[in-house]
Amino acid sequence: MTAQPPETSPHTVPPGEIRASHDDREAVVEQLRDAAAEGRIDLDELDARLEAALKSKTRGELAVLTADLPSPEPPESEPPLVVKGGMSGASRGPGRWEVPGHVIAHGGLGGVKLDFTRVECRRTEIVVEAYGEMAGVTIVIPDAWAADTGGVDPGLGGLTDKTTPGRLPGTPLIRLTGAGGMAGLVVRHPNRRERRKLLSDPGRP
To answer: Is the pTM higher than 0.90?
Structure first.
């Protein structure tokens, strides 16, 4: 009996024809800028390729723009930032602070607040692993950012997500994991008081 070749689904799309996302375009833009900084392409060529990258509809179109460039080296692994509330609480922000790709927050007895409103972060994703414990963890993100809370176990304290689903291109996604514990987790945009401070002194570190 002759084996029949597997049928091809009419909905199967070749990899190069898959629609490009904002993150796909941003990754190519960064690779092109790095190539120009290294002297691999000149400024006129950089401008032309950047314009083409921003107009690209598919991953195949993006691949053509970097086909003659070396593949980007994988980022060096870095340890997570661990913030512990302890007895008296702990916080990061609202000033500028170095944001790693992975943050671990333990509410403890004093609570933890992570405020991202003044940071300059070029990452596409930040994993925040939060454990509310006895006093809770609060995470404040800019209006342009978004949060994915699907990996959270609410626990007894629950999860309060007051963020909006809209996310501007090129801004990070906060991927929240962990557990609410007794006091719970809160992720939100700036409240009225915090927003007044941002507006009154936007250049404050």
So the answer is: no
